[in-house]
Amino acid sequence: MNTITVNGTALRYDDHGPADGLPVLLVHGHPFNRSMWRPQVEALTRAGHRAVTPDLRGYGESEVVPGTTAFAEFADDLAALLDHLGIDRAVIGGVSMGGQITMEFQRTHPGRVRALILCDTSPAPELEAGKEARRAMADRLLAEGMAGYADEVIDKMIAPYNVTAQPETAAHVLGMMRTTDPRGAAAALRGRAERPSYLGTLAATDVPVLVVVGADDTYTTVADTQTWTPVLPQADVIVIEGAGHLPNLEQPETVNTALLHFLHTEVL
Hints:
There is one protein chain. By secondary structure, the chain is an alpha/beta fold. It is built from twelve helices and eight strands. It has helices spanning 38-46, 71-85, 97-108, 128-144, 147-157, 160-165, 167-179, 182-193, 199-203, 222-228, 247-250, 252-267; strands at residues 2-6, 9-16, 23-27, 50-54, 90-95, 113-119, 209-214, 236-240. The longest helix is centred in the middle third of the chain and has 17 residues, at 128-144. The protein is globular.
């Protein structure tokens, strides 16, 4: 584990694998932390790649910044981390909110992106009702904490059948959610409410893209994903059976196989 202060905020991150390996920076979703990428870090480093996994500001062991955290701030933090590590261009990937931050990074720092990995995410902006819901949830988390919310959404974060069939996975996901600082989660939710559309960003993207979605994801469904992936005619779109919103944890071997195949055939 390492610590760096970027843009006035202390971030914790892990940097595994050979320094000269293909750099892959993975961005966790909400309300999680960098530990969600452990299966991918192990697979990447075994294959000789370099895996960088930060805790976003307000999450995990990084410094909590109350208020509102704009997605551009998250993206700038990632760029500063790459600068610190001496990495000019990297494969950037993320799940859910992390996928949206990945698209923000592509929008604001396109020259730093070697390829994109978008997992169970959406490029669409928030509609007014969605903005109100994000803000209301931010207020609720500040008032009540994370435990009740975590219990409510566990069978949406992972498929309901995996809550019972994969108790260790469920416990890991619940643990990440319950230990997230509500101030950091609320700040991100407020910023997420104001995110732009990334459809134009994706349409202009000229780097390889891997899109992954859990077959039973109810947040970002396969049908929803199929509405926007046509703007990326060269993208690899992989549906992961036996998974909900977090296929990298629910079906890690399948996701790792798809990830390594993508890196070895489309990026290297």
